[in-house]
Amino acid sequence: MRKLKITELNRISVDEFKDVEKIPLIIVLDNIRSLNNIGSVFRTSDAFLIEAIYLCGITATPPNNEIHKTALGAEDSVSWLYFEETTDAIKQLKDKNYTVFAIEQVENSIPLEEVKLNPANKYAVVLGNEVKGVQQSVVNMCDNSIEISQYGTKHSLNVSVTTGIIIWDFFKQLYK
Question: Is this prediction's pTM over 0.85?
Fold first, then answer.
């Protein structure tokens, strides 16, 4: 087998991306400190037609050379908004009838493999700080929490890896 050339991948332009129908999912980054993680979330969000990214608190915003290193231009295609307080982002989403999930290990969280989505509904997922996770005040505002089942000695994943897993699972259920 032969690797495809970049010109054979039939990628759409940034302008075409802005016009294409997105899946009804917004990613909320709650105080993410790593610029590489932020860039990776942009890149994955571009790949799977995410509606927008909400950057909150200490989460850096484009334009930023360090974000660009991993986003590779996705920071120009994916829509984003900045909120000083994550709680303000959640309030706005709830006012717009989004179902909001914290991606966090909490009491009675739903294992990701049990989440059933309706493509007619709108969703948002909140991913938290690399050390402290999603703020408790934000968890309190969410409709529920989703947990990725893990079976090894570690019980956490890198935030960009977690985002990729969550986006892929939501994409499979929401893409028309």
Answer: yes
